[in-house]
Hints:
This protein is about 25% helix and about 10% strand. The chain has helices at about 10-25, 50-55, 85-90; strands spanning about 1-5, 30, 35-40, 65. The strands form two sheets. It has a two-stranded parallel ribbon. The radius of gyration is 19 Å and the shape is elongated. It starts with a strand and ends in a 21-residue tail after the last helix.
Amino acid sequence: WIGEFGESSRSDWWKAYMRYAAEMDLDWCYWALDAYKYAPGIEIDTSYMQSDQIFDLPGGKTVDYIPDDYGLLRNDYMSARHVWKLADLVSLQAPVISDVDAPPGAARDDRC
C-alpha cells in the first residue's frame, strides 16, 4: 500500500512511479482530489506551522483562492485539472470481473 502521493507535472519521477506501480500492482491513494489548498474565504493561521510548511501562505489574512496544483479536479469540481494525470491513474486500475457480473463469454479475473 502506498499512502498519499501526488505530482503537478508529468515529470520523470511521475512516469517512473507509474511504471513501478503498474509492475508491482500496488494499492495506492492519490493526493489530492480537491482543487483548493484552502477554500475561498478561509483565514489561515500559520502560527503553528514550521517555516518550511508556510511557503507563501498569507498568514492571518483571508484568502480568495489558493489552488492545489496536485488536485485532480478544477475548482468547478466537474472537470479534470490535468487529463494526463487522470488517464495515468485510471490505467493503474485493473478491471475486476466476477462470475456474478460478467457477461457470457467474458474473460474472468481469477484474483477475485
